[in-house]
Design a protein that fits this description.
single chain; mainly beta; 7-stranded mixed barrel; 3 helices
Length: 285
């Protein structure tokens, strides 16, 4: 059986694919890789369909040993990658032989690196996905040293490219959002969201927590309560503190606080790489 052994998971590593959308009516979040674009790219470079499962490694530090030869690729922020101590770099297809160990360094910017292996990580599916949902506990557990992960059969041809430029993880982001559906519950929501916010260390795969000048409730809703209603990935929920939370892939499927706006899907990957201290402002369109 083709497999890899986790020598070290680094700070926090999860198995993720493109998620399990369509189960919100059961209270199950979509989950999946936070930086979808990076996982898709890693799979293409390794010769896989974009939907196969890989490893999402928070702040890198991942080290794995292979029992069979494989083509691998590491994407996300630019990061050092080596095989048995020989440097290769990220964002390129690398051949690894049986018994060799691949190690991922710590990125200088950004948060999440993605490792794709030819054939994909072939653990058991739950509701059609191999992704870990950290809020509900659905899917494979966080990786630990000594875990042996089965690999699927390698069928594809690695994508050839002379140069793949890593996506930047800037110190500040301007994110386009669609207003509503409860922006009327807030006083000057467009102006408030367009101020600069700072990503806090309390952020995780459930939500990006922000600090800044709190948003204020509109006078007519100052004492009102909102019945729980469905929320989307990218929804910007405003709790009583007035400090927004941007719901990411493992978010709850319902919420009882007003949603001021929703982040455009195409920009969620940028938020997935926003470290604590990153400045964020929202452009209401």
């Amino acid at each position: 059986m083709r497999s890899l052994e986790v020598v070290s998971p680094g700070p926090y590593a999860l198995i993720e694919d493109l998620g399990r959308p369509g189960y919100a009516h059961l209270g199950v979040a979509p989950s999946g890789a936070l930086d979808t674009a990076s996982l898709r790219l890693a799979n293409r470079l390794a010769g896989n369909p974009e939907s196969l499962a890989g490893i999402e490694a928070l702040l890198g530090g991942l080290s794995v040993r292979f029992t069979a030869s494989a083509t691998v690729a590491v994407t996300g922020p630019s990061v050092a990658v080596d095989v048995d101590g020989r440097p290769f770099g990220s964002h390129t297809a690398v051949f690894v032989g049986a018994g060799q160990t691949l190690a991922v360094g710590t990125p200088g910017a950004g948060l999440r690196c993605y490792l794709a292996v030819s054939g994909g990580i072939d653990v058991e599916e739950v509701l059609g996905s191999r992704s870990r949902d950290v809020l509900s506990g659905i899917g494979p557990a966080p990786l630990r040293s000594g875990d042996v992960l089965p690999l699927g059969p390698a069928r594809g041809v690695p994508a050839g490219a002379d140069v793949v430029v890593p996506a930047a993880a800037p110190a500040s982001l301007v994110i386009p959002v669609t207003p509503g559906p409860r922006d009327d519950w807030l006083e000057s929501p467009a102006e408030g969201l367009s101020a600069w916010w700072t990503v806090t260390p309390e952020s995780n795969r459930v939500g990006l927590r922000l600090d800044g000048t709190p948003l204020r409730r509109a006078a007519e809703f100052a004492e009102a309560e909102l019945p729980s209603e469905g929320v989307l990935t990218g929804a910007i929920q405003v709790p009583p503190s007035g400090l927004p939370v941007v719901f990411l892939n493992d978010h709850p499927t319902t919420g009882g606080y007003p949603v001021a706006a929703v982040v455009r899907t195409a920009t969620l990957s940028a938020l997935a790489q926003a470290r604590p201290g990153t400045r964020v402002r929202f452009r209401v369109t």
